[in-house]
Amino acid sequence: MSALHRSKKAKRVSLVIGIVSVMGLVFSNTQALAISSFKSAADPYSGKLVYWFWAESDVPGSTAWMQAAIKRYEALHKNISIELVPQGSDTLQGAFETTAQSKSGPDIAMQWATLPVLTPVWRGQVASLKGLIPDSEIANWLNTSENVSGGQTWAMPLYLLGEPFVWNKTLFKKAGLDPNKGPTTWAEFLADSAKLKAAGITPVQMGLKDGAFGAWFQATIGTQNLNSVSELQDVYTGKAKFTDPKYSGYLTQLADMSKKGYFNKDIASIDINQAWQNFAQGKGAMTWTTDGNVASWVKAGLEKQIGVQMAPKAGTGKLASFYTATQSISAFITSWSKQKPAAAAFMTWLHQPANLSSWYTATGAFPADKRFSTTAIKNPLMKQLFALDSQPGQVWAENYAPPQVDSNGIRPFAQAVITGSSTPAKAASDIQNSITQWQTQQPADFKSYKTWASGK
Questions:
Q1: Structural domain total, the chain
Q2: What is the DSSP pairing of strand 165-168 with strand 286-288?
Q3: Could you tell me the pTM of the whole model?
Q4: What is residue 217's three-state secondary structure?
Q5: Rounded distance, CA 263 to CA 118, Å?
Q6: How far apart are CA 421 and CA 123, in angstroms?
Q7: In this structure, is residue 389 part of a structural domain?
Q8: Model confidence over 200-236: pLDDT tens digits?
């Protein structure tokens, strides 16, 4: 072989070796990148999580507690970071619907229990917890039945939320009423309201600006002529009409209260949280609120001024004996999250007994977990609320309303009745129209709702 041929062969060999080396380097780097990506996605203690959080309206102090909890978690696991993004009550559902369309945004999101959670589940926007959080862990969570569809639990409860009827004992006494006895029937409620008004005291302090009160009133008063939760579902599956007085009769009660001047005059211009602040300042004798707000009033030294109980009995159905407690807000992992194991690990950690205890100490709201030691509840008023929250019969009617119906029907049209811009009959018809619109505009959701309501 000539020197020239040897030289060409040597060059060809060098070229082949060079190509192989480069390919090996590329493969090695690609493999390293793939391993790194896999580690980031599969390692539950590395990466970055974005958490859209809501609870402050229910539980004052909850955002500060979660921020502190995240710092503790990040100190335990140096390779993970969690960005907390507090959400507003008026944009909570709309913001998630928008981000879900582009499959971007949070790894962990929160929505109110039942339909606001299950609707995104049916749309494929929520990740299954199967294989991410053990069944033995989920078994400790309370009120998870609200977020069950297709035999699976899809979201994590953080706290229990009761909606007690509350009165100001000082103002009751000033009006000549028994300060230690709230009204237990609707007739007593109206009689007490009349006496309070005659004494120059605002009977009911509430806010309408966010529309929530109409749904809350339906939950506590509007279901009392029904005998079962399935009857409540019937109006959304098309088996019953909202215009039936057993569903819409509460609108007449709202109109009656408004005409008699039993609400605060600025009810239309303030939201529900502002109304609770006013109540705590003695600007109204009665209201409906949350456990968390009562806890904050207790911490402010108002315990002796406050009485708590179930809402007055206004109907004759079996649900008239039910209390309105729920898990309120629920956390779930989004289907598009690339950090599902990390999200699941953090959610599981939030339910560790030490965190349950810390949550209660900081907020006074009851954790939604069997492992929470009820011996921590020392305050007599909070003991009363926990007894109400834990009694067998519970229903929160708003949870069963499709979000579109809640936003476009139940909330605004009850609001219109109170402000006098609509009549109870017109509002009932408008709410029924909003139900019909949802059924026709969202046929897939409607079909899923009927399947869910049937227990499948």
A1: 2
A2: antiparallel
A3: 0.86
A4: helix
A5: 35
A6: 36
A7: no
A8: 999 999 999 988 999 999 999 999 999 999 999 999 9
Three-class DSSP category at 80: strand
pLDDT tens column, 354-396: 999 999 999 999 999 999 999 999 999 999 999 999 998 899 9
Instruction: Examine the domain organization and report whether 206 and 288 are in the same domain.
Output: yes
In a domain, 112, yes or no: yes
Domain with residue 353: its CATH number is 3.40.190.10
Query: Within 243-337, where are the H helices?
Result: 245-259, 272-280, 291-299
C-alpha to C-alpha distances, 58 to 269, 288, 399, 441, nearest whole angstrom: 20, 12, 15, 32
Alpha helices in 281-410 (DSSP H): 291-299, 340-350, 353-363, 380-389, 403-405
Q: Which residue segment(s) compose the domain that 339 sits in?
A: 47-157+328-367
Do 178 and 72 lie in one domain? The reply is: no
| Domain-embedded: residue 421 | yes
Alpha-carbon distance of 346 to 24, in angstroms, equals 39
Looking at the structure, tell me whether residues 218 and 134 fall in a common domain: no
Q: How far apart are CA 420 and CA 167, in angstroms?
A: 26
